[in-house]
């Protein structure tokens, strides 16, 4: 039986025009699957891919696992049938305030059938990045992710050791804005170097330390790495549970941990965040 946390650690991209891969993804270990109706599918084939996706979604055993990535230029055609087919959420590529407004209007028009449809926006352009403070306050947004290849290309930044610090600063601002708005921790960008799993583990660890709570994958082999890095150890869970218990026993007043260190609200908040990443049946 799969073990999943309260919010997915891993999101595996699967091309929407490859129905032969849907069942494989369903049998796999990814916490969530994103059926892609954007970059992975040629424009001419997106209507057929949408038909495949919307035929598949009502048949799945775990509907909470299934998301769909949409192109904002085809929201009018794609979002309603995807939401009505039972997708847990949609990932809006190249997100903007206008796209969020349009998505909100479409979902409101569907009514109760789409009331649980979550929306994640991908930051993929300089214009979107500049509007982060406004985007994160949109009532329809669950959190953000980063389409880093597109974002860096739009900014004219070449990824290298010399630019690593600047890229981390860009990533950190996405984390800061999501946290300031009370959103879920953002979803870390994927890596196209899917055979370099040691490197992928290192970057996943770095992104987690920067404040990202999940990561996307383009290959099933990356999923196990994401889970290994993002799943708390038994020791971490025990320590977090002790912190929360001592804080609650003290009536949420002054408390100390087993080593005599002060437990304040920030420590408790971090402990609860650790516990929220605990997989359950």
UniProtKB/TrEMBL annotation:
Residues 9-220 form the HpcH/HpaI aldolase/citrate lyase domain. It comes from the Bacteria. It comes from Nocardioides soli. GO terms for molecular function: citryl-CoA lyase activity; magnesium ion binding. InterPro entries: Aldolase/citrate-lyase_domain (IPR005000), Citrate_lyase_beta/mcl1/mcl2 (IPR011206), Pyrv/PenolPyrv_kinase-like_dom (IPR015813), Pyrv_kinase-like_dom_sf (IPR040442). Keywords: Lyase, Magnesium, Metal-binding. This is Citrate lyase subunit beta/citryl-CoA lyase. Signal peptide: none annotated. The lineage of its organism: Bacteria, Bacillati, Actinomycetota, Actinomycetes, Propionibacteriales. Gene3D superfamilies: Phosphoenolpyruvate-binding domains. It is an enzyme of class 4 (lyase). Mg(2+) binds at residues 124, 150. Substrate binds at residues 69, 124. One of its GO terms (biological process) is oxaloacetate metabolic process. Its cofactor is Mg(2+). The keyword Magnesium applies. It holds the Pfam family HpcH_HpaI. Its EC number is 4.1.3.34.
């Amino acid at each position: 039986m799969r073990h999943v946390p309260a919010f997915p650690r891993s999101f595996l991209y699967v091309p929407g025009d490859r129905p032969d891969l849907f069942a494989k993804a369903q049998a796999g270990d990814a916490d969530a699957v994103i059926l892609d109706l954007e970059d992975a599918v040629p424009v001419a084939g997106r209507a057929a891919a949408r038909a495949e996706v919307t035929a598949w979604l009502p048949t799945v055993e775990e509907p909470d696992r299934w998301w769909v990535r949409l192109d904002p230029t085809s929201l009018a055609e794609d979002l309603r049938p995807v939401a009505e087919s039972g997708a847990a959420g949609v990932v809006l590529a190249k997100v903007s305030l206008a796209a969020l407004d349009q998505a909100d209007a479409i979902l409101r028009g569907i009514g109760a059938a789409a009331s649980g449809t979550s929306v994640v926006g991908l930051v993929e352009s300089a214009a979107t990045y500049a509007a982060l403070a406004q985007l994160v306050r949109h009532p329809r947004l669950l959190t953000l992710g980063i389409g880093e290849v597109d974002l860096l290309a739009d900014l004219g930044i070449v990824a290298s050791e010399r630019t690593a610090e600047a890229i981390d600063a860009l990533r950190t601002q996405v984390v800061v804005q999501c946290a300031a708005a009370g959103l879920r921790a953002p979803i870390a960008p994927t890596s196209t170097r899917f055979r370099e799993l040691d490197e992928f583990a290192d970057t996943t660890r770095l992104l987690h330390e920067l404040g990202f709570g999940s990561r996307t994958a383009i290959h099933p082999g990356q999923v196990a790495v994401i889970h290994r890095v993002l799943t708390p150890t038994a020791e971490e869970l025990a320590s977090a549970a002790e912190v929360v218990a001592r804080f609650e026993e003290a009536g949420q007043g002054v408390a100390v941990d087993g080593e005599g260190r002060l437990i304040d609200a920030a420590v408790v908040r971090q402990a609860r965040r650790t516990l929220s990443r605990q997989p359950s049946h």
